[in-house]
Design a protein that fits this description.
Layout (H helix, E strand, L loop, with lengths): L2 H7 L4 E5 L6 E8 L3 E8 L4 H12 L8 E9 L2 E9 L3 E3 H7 L4 H20 L2 E2 L8 E4 L4 E3 L6 E2 L22 H4 L8 H17 L12 H10 L14 H9 L11 H12 L7
Antiparallel strand pairs: 1-2, 2-3, 3-5, 4-5, 6-8, 7-10, 8-9
Helix pairs in contact: 4-6, 4-9, 6-8, 8-9
C-alpha cells in the first residue's frame, strides 16, 4: 500500500508521512479535513481482533489511550480493507526514549502513575491489555503517556478469541506475566497487566530488563527466566527505604496472588510510596 493509493481512495486527505508496515496494517500520518492531523490505518484483513480493538477504543473511552474517530470498509484495487482514523499522539515510544535519551526518575514515577491509572479503568471495564511494553507506550511531547495497540487485549466479559486448548496465550515474551505464556486462562485478570507495568517501569529506571539480557538462545529461555529470575534489588537514588524498588518487585511477583489484588490498590500503595522518594531533577 503506497501513498499514491491512499491519495486515490482518500482524495480529501493529505499524506504527510508513511510508516513501516506493521503486521496486518499499513499506517500513514495524514491531514484530514475534519480531524486534522491524525493516523490512518489500513488493515489488510478484517478479523475479530481488529473489531475488538475498535470496540474497546470507541465504547470505553479509556484514559490515556488514543481515540478512534472513524472506521469503515474501503475497497482498494478490488480488495476490501478496513480503515481506521485514529488520534495522533505526537512524541516517541518509550522504547526510543529510554534508548536514546536521559529518562530521569521523575518521569518513571509519572509513567508508573499513568499506567496504574489506565489499569484501573481497564479493570473497571473488565479488559486486560496483555501487551504492555515500551513499544506500546507513547511519551507525548505534552508530557503525557499513552497506552496503544489493544490488538491482543482480552475482554473478560466477552468470548475469548484464543483457542481454548492453546498451550501459550497471546503476549510479548519478556513482558507477559507467567500466567499469560503458561496460559492459565482462569487466572488472567488485571494483575497480568500489573506485572507488565512493573517490568516496563523497572526498565525505564535502570535501562536494563529485569529478567532478560538479550543473549538468550531462544524464546524458551526467555520464558524460563521470566518465570524464575527474581529482579535485582538495585538502588534507586532517593529511594532511601527501598520502598519503590520493593513495590516494583511486588508488581513482578511470579505468582499472581502475591501481586496487588487490584489496580486501584496498587495505585493506593504507590501514592504512599511516591511521597517517600526524594526526587532530584
Amino acid at each position: 500500500m503506497d501513498v499514491k493509493s491512499i491519495e486515490i481512495y482518500f482524495p480529501d486527505v493529505k499524506v504527510i508521512n508513511s510508516f513501516k508496515e506493521s503486521g496486518q496494517k499499513f499506517v500513514f500520518l495524514i491531514d484530514h479535513p475534519k480531524y486534522e492531523i491524525t493516523i490512518l490505518k489500513i488493515v489488510k484483513e478484517k478479523d475479530e481482533r481488529t473489531v475488538r480493538e475498535i470496540e474497546i477504543a470507541t465504547k470505553y473511552n479509556i484514559r490515556n489511550t488514543p481515540k478512534i474517530f472513524e472506521f469503515d470498509i474501503v475497497k482498494i484495487d478490488g480488495k476490501e480493507y478496513m480503515y481506521i482514523i485514529e488520534e495522533y499522539i505526537e512524541g516517541n515510544t518509550l522504547s526510543d526514549e529510554i534508548k536514546t535519551k536521559s529518562f530521569p526518575l521523575y518521569k518513571s514515577l509519572d509513567l508508573l502513575e499513568s499506567l496504574l491509572e489506565t489499569a484501573i479503568e481497564l479493570e473497571k471495564s473488565k479488559i486486560v491489555h496483555r501487551d504492555i511494553k515500551p513499544d506500546n507506550i507513547i511519551c507525548s511531547n505534552s508530557g503525557k503517556y499513552y497506552l496503544i495497540d489493544f490488538g491482543i487485549a482480552r475482554m473478560l466479559n466477552a468470548t475469548s478469541l484464543t483457542f481454548t486448548k492453546a498451550v501459550i496465550g497471546p503476549h510479548t515474551p519478556g513482558y507477559g506475566a507467567p500466567e499469560l505464556f503458561q496460559y492459565s486462562k482462569s487466572e488472567i485478570d488485571i494483575r497480568a497487566d500489573l506485572f507488565s507495568i512493573g517490568v516496563v517501569v523497572y526498565e525505564s529506571i535502570f535501562k536494563k530488563h529485569p529478567f532478560i539480557t538479550g543473549n538468550e538462545l531462544d524464546i524458551n529461555e526467555i520464558w524460563f527466566k521470566t518465570a524464575t529470575v527474581v529482579p535485582q534489588s538495585l538502588y534507586i537514588p532517593g529511594d532511601m527505604d527501598k520502598k519503590l524498588i520493593g513495590f516494583l518487585q511486588t508488581l513482578m511477583q511470579k505468582h499472581i496472588s502475591r501481586r496487588p489484588p487490584t489496580a486501584k490498590r496498587a495505585l493506593e500503595w504507590f501514592s504512599i510510596i511516591k511521597d517517600t522518594v526524594e526526587i532530584n531533577n
